[in-house]
Amino acid sequence: QARHKPRYISLTNLRKYVIQYRNSYDARRPPEAYSDGIHCHFIKEEPAVEQSTELIDLTRRSYEALSSGDIAFFERHVSQDEGVLAIGTDPNEWWSEYATIIRVFKIQLEEMGPLSIDVGTLNAYSDGNVGWAAGRLTLRLADGTAVPLRVTSVYQRQQGDWKIVQWHGSAGVPNADVIGKDLTTE
Fold first, then answer.
1. 42-45: long-range contacts at Cβ-Cβ below 8 A with a sequence spacing of 24 or more?
2. In terms of CB atoms within 10 Å, which end of the chain has fewer, N or C?
3. Which of 98, 70, 71 minimizes the C-alpha distance to 164?
4. CA-CA-CA-CA torsion sign (175, 180, 184, 186)
5. How far is CA 82 from CA 32, 74, 93, 154, 173, in A?
6. Dihedrals phi, psi of 15, to nearest 5 degrees
7. Gyration radius from the chain CA atoms
8. Nearest-CA neighbor of 117 among 95, 146, 139, 134?
9. CA 93, CA 71: separation in Å to the nearest integer?
10. What does the mean pLDDT of the chain come to?
11. What is the 3-state secondary structure (H, E, C) of 56-76?
């Protein structure tokens, strides 16, 4: 028997193929009886990048958690996997482990005191198990200081839940220049 060059078929075309032969299917016949002698390898279609209202909602909730000092939100939604990373405005704000991220977020939220966040623009997209969000927001401190920030988040779906694997909040200058005081960075 001659060897055939493998043909790759998408899941969409496989569905069409199955529908086409559905009426002639007989479970007693071997699968190769339906391949017309062509050896097929099935490939998974790549999901398309799409806007994600789910990640927009999750990102908004992360801003609300910052406003209310809800560290438990971050304990639940920051990935504990290797490679997790958070970057802040201060040159020393570069944290690469879950425990460090949670510890420093908790201390900083206490140090900053009451604050509110006004969300300007917020966009989020996903592609399979990976998603990202970017927002322009204004951080309002208790003394009335308004600080424009840019925040990006990268998410990965882990065990069915979106987890933050990378977070970056930036005003582009050290914390002392932005809010008038140094914050813990280690």
1. 42/8, 42/9, 42/11, 42/14, 43/8, 43/9, 43/10, 43/11, 44/11, 45/10, 45/11, 45/12
2. N
3. 98
4. positive
5. 44, 16, 18, 14, 28
6. -60, -45
7. 25
8. 139
9. 18
10. 84
11. HHHHHHHHHHHHHCCHHHHHH
Token readout for 121 is 């623009």
DSSP string, 100-114: HHHHHHHHHHHHH-S
- The residues pairing with 132 across neighbouring beta strands, listed in sequence order, are 125, 154
Whether residue 110 is predicted with pLDDT greater than 50 in this model: the reply is yes
Contact 52, 153 (CB under 8 A): no
Q: What tens digit of pLDDT does each residue of 146-184 get?
A: 999 999 999 999 999 999 999 999 886 788 887 899 998
Per-residue pLDDT tens over the stretch 38-95? 444 455 556 689 999 999 999 999 999 999 999 999 999 999 999 999 999 888 999 9
Residues pairing with 170 in the sheet: 150
Contact 137, 119 (CB under 8 A): yes
Identity at 35, one-letter amino acid code:
S
